[in-house]
Amino acid sequence: MRAMKHGFLIAWCLGVCAAGWPARAFALDTANPNATPAAKALLNYLVGLPGKEDKRVLSGQVGGWSNHVDRDYEAFIVELHKRTGKWVAIAEFDYIGYTPSVNKRARQYWQEGGLLVINWHANNPWTGGSYQDRDVGSGLTECITPGTRAYESWIKLLDQTAERLKELGDAGAVVIWRPFHEMNSSGFWWCRRPKEDFIALWRHMFRYFTQTKKLDFLLWAYSPDDGYGDEKPGLYYYPGDEYVDIVGLDKYGLRDTVTLKHYEALVSTGKPFGVTEAGAPKGWDNTILIEAIRTKYPKTVFFIFWTGNNAIINHEKAGEMLSDPWVVNRDDLPASVTVFREKQSR
User: Fold this and answer.
1) 268-280 burial by CB neighbour count: b if 16+ within 10 A, else e?
2) Where do the domains of the chain lie?
3) What is the pLDDT of residue 341?
4) pLDDT at 65
5) Alpha helices, DSSP H only, in 191-286?
6) What pLDDT does 340 receive?
């Protein structure tokens, strides 16, 4: 079986339209030129999805915030499988208030055949307060300027986070890394700052994680907010193609009509596009989102629902959505992704 999968991957990489896929093997370079083969394979699997007739949008669910990840993982991912018979393709976790359970659950999901997204609601490096503490001293660039107290705190936070990510990389995982989300809104310390300062902050983390820490298994996801109200345009804070692999939008308050107002701008980058966070009132009809993707936003290659009342399981027609012909669940992921999993986990 392993030899068959290896042969399938070679054919795919040569651009043969195996399983009906378009000949776009490694059509998009990773932002990190030293990215692992597994990371490159995953990125270009995502690139090729809009060209497929079906099985082209990956399902996803947040498995919990760090301080209660075990409870949320069981409630929102395991219970969803019990009710629908489907494991989502992507499990998303957050490093806020980190506990070892986060990486334990993330490794488990990867080893069982799923994909991973990791967010980080980073603490404020100026005050030591939470991600909601908006005191940034003289500005964001202070925390990337050597010699300042904010810099010392920020590097310590980066070092801790890099070690946590490295545990996943050592287990063979590819991680879609989603820092500084919703930067165009106003909720967190990195949000709604001067554009050039935010871009400098993003690029500093990118270089530190790729060049200094050698975290070559990361794919970098840029995900502004869509719809809280007075947010900046979707690409206002975009750090540049050479610093981003995947783009997406965080969209809450979903209703009968789904509108992604920054969709066209983000897909214009040529990067794979996803709904990086989705939220709707409890009891909402899940199938509305996949139908909106099919009819209005067909370049979308994944969606990920947040926790609590926003979770897939707390809406109506979860099974119908996950059984839609366009939806890719964990068991549908192809050999081009799993072959690397087998090699790196041995």
Assistant:
1) ebebbbbbbbbbb
2) 2-344
3) 65
4) 80
5) 195-207, 263-267
6) 62
**How far, in Å, CA of 164 to CA of 106, rounded?**
11
CA atoms of 4 and 172, how far apart (whole Å): 21
Residues 6+ apart with CB under 8 A from 209: 158, 162, 165, 177, 215, 218
Tokens standing for residue 270: 């040529």
70 neighbors 103 (Cβ within 8 angstroms):
no
Give the DSSP H/E element, type plus range, for residue 127: none
Is it true that domain 2-344 has CATH number 3.90.226.10? Answer: no
**By three-state DSSP, how is residue 273 classified?**
strand
The pLDDT of residue 343: 56
Instruction: Give the Cβ contact number of residue 174 at 10 Å.
Output: 27
The residues of the chain scoring below 50 in pLDDT are 1-26, 346
pLDDT of residue 145: 98
Please give the pLDDT value at position 88: 98
Tokens of 211: 């060049």
Name residue, tokens 């969606």. Answer: 303
Backbone conformation region of residue 334, classed left if phi is above 0, alpha if psi is from -120 to 50, else beta = beta
- Phi (first) and psi of residue 305, to 5 degrees: -90, 145
**Whole-angstrom Cα distance, residue 232 to residue 191?**
10
- Secondary element (H or E) of residue 247: strand 246-251
Contacts 24+ apart (CB under 8 A), 236-242: 236/184, 236/195, 237/183, 237/184, 237/195, 237/198, 237/199, 237/202, 238/199, 238/269, 239/198, 239/199, 239/202, 239/203, 239/206, 240/199, 240/203, 241/31, 241/269, 241/270, 241/271, 242/31
